[in-house]
Specification:
The structure is a single chain. This protein is α/β, with parallel strands linked by helices. Helices cover 44% and strands 14% of the residues. Strands 3-2-4-5-1-6-7-8-9 form a nine-stranded mixed sheet. α10 crosses α12.
């Protein structure tokens, strides 16, 4: 019965994709059939981003599903519904069935013992009440958490992490995990946008979906930076060249073919955290990048700028926890380091709010080691909630917009303060 309602709902959405707005609190994870849940997720994304949802977009966005299986299921869904008017009713049926399954699972999993019966009953009641409200229990017993996550540790299989593509940095941080907020701070023109563009393009090359909220540059400018790195053609040539020279045409075409395959989404223009949340909640992004924090709008007015930035910082942290995704946030630094003989910044120089360093899981700072030579950068992991600190050098090629880690002998910097388990 539930499976019939799921097919009927997808069939209704194929008739009228905008009927997804009538589906209330239905979530993709509430579907019995995982593939139908993926279909529903695609309709949600299309509605949020305003592009058409049809068989063509389903085939493009679900390329990992065998085409024959996808088309067979689409035909079944189409024959299960002849109108989109009942989409809301089908959604209600799916939600009720999900609650029934989950309630039965909660009760059957309870192990009632006389020694702690009151607490056990209270825990079951909390979980059932949360389920009734369409959510999940706010608090969970540590034993349940042990059962859920302990199997991920000390095994040959990788835990779900993302990597920046910088070996020493990844070794120090151990990769990025859901709920992390990674703040990258630097003074203007040091290269923090180029640095994060290299990171997100590396993640996309690893098969990850990355969502960039680009509040400072136009989409074409982001494209130019990624193109320069992949093609090896200098950014100046890309921006000003009137005709191809040598093998530039072949490199340009090859880089564009690679770019078409990268799962990078770019959203430009001023945004508030609530707007970012509404856009990305159904995107299924593996990582979200915000460039940069001081340009994010607040949803309410404050008496001073520090309070505004503090509210944005806390809202971004809450979003990372809600979506269980890492969020990389760029931040400006104040001018304090410019007056010192040694230009290396500190975490206290994060501009306009001390809340940023408090809310961040990781704080990475960049600076020019030599004011007269912008090709030599310094990087340090000033805060690392789940690991060690790091200081290292970076070489920067402004033409190709590419960073590379420098050998310790080239910089005189020290590595992580102590060995990590990832060595």
């Amino acid at each position: 019965m539930t499976f019939d309602a799921e097919k009927a709902l997808v069939g209704a959405l194929l008739i009228d994709p905008k009927a997804v707005k009538d589906c209330g609190n239905l979530r993709p994870d509430m579907f019995c059939n995982r593939l139908l849940g993926q279909f529903y997720q695609e309709f949600l994304r299309a509605y949020d981003f305003g592009y058409p949802a049809n068989l063509v977009t389903l085939r493009e966005n679900l390329s990992d599903v065998p085409q024959g299986s996808l088309l067979d299921l689409v035909r079944e869904c189409s024959s299960a519904s002849v109108t989109s008017v009942a989409a809301g009713k089908y959604a209600e049926t799916i939600v009720r069935s999900y609650k029934a399954r989950s309630a039965a699972s909660i009760v059957s999993a309870a192990n009632f013992l006389p020694s702690g019966i009151d607490q056990q009953i209270g825990q079951v009641i909390n979980e059932l009440e949360a389920l009734q409200d369409g959510g999940r229990a706010a608090a969970r017993n540590l034993g349940q958490i042990v059962d859920d996550v302990s199997g991920r540790y000390f095994t040959a299989s990788d835990r779900p992490r993302l990597y920046t593509g910088f070996p020493k940095l990844d070794n120090c941080m151990g990769g990025l995990e859901g709920g992390d907020v990674i703040v990258i701070g630097a003074r203007p023109a040091v290269g923090k946008s180029a640095f994060v563009t290299q990171i997100l393009s590396q993640m996309a090359q690893d098969g990850k979906r990355v969502l960039l909220y680009n509040l400072e540059m136009l989409e074409a400018q982001v494209y130019e930076r990624v193109l320069a790195r992949l093609s090896g053609i200098s950014l100046t040539r890309i921006r000003r060249g009137k005709a191809f020279l040598g093998d530039e045409k072949e490199r340009f075409s090859a880089a564009n073919e690679k770019l078409r395959k990268l799962d990078i989404w770019i959203s430009s223009g001023a945004k508030s955290v609530s707007e970012i949340r509404s856009e990305c909640r159904h995107m299924g992004a593996d990582c979200i990048v915000i460039d940069y924090l001081q340009l994010v709008r607040t949803d309410r007015r404050y008496s001073n700028r520090a309070s505004e930035v503090g509210d944005v910082s806390k809202s971004i942290k809450a979003l990372a926890m809600e979506l269980n995704r890492p969020i990389i946030v760029l931040s400006q630094l104040n001018r304090a380091s410019e007056g010192r003989q040694r230009p290396e910044p500190t975490m206290a120089e994060l501009r306009e709010s001390g809340d940023i360093e408090q809310d961040a899981s990781v704080v990475i700072l960049l600076w020019n080691q030599n004011e007269k030579d912008s090709s030599q950068k310094g990087l340090k992991v000033e805060k690392n909630r789940q690991g060690q600190q790091l200081r290292m050098g970076l070489a920067f090629d402004g033409g190709s917009m590419e960073f590379r880690e420098m050998d310790w002998a080239e910089t005189g910097f020290e590595s992580c303060k102590q060995k990590t388990p990832f060595d």
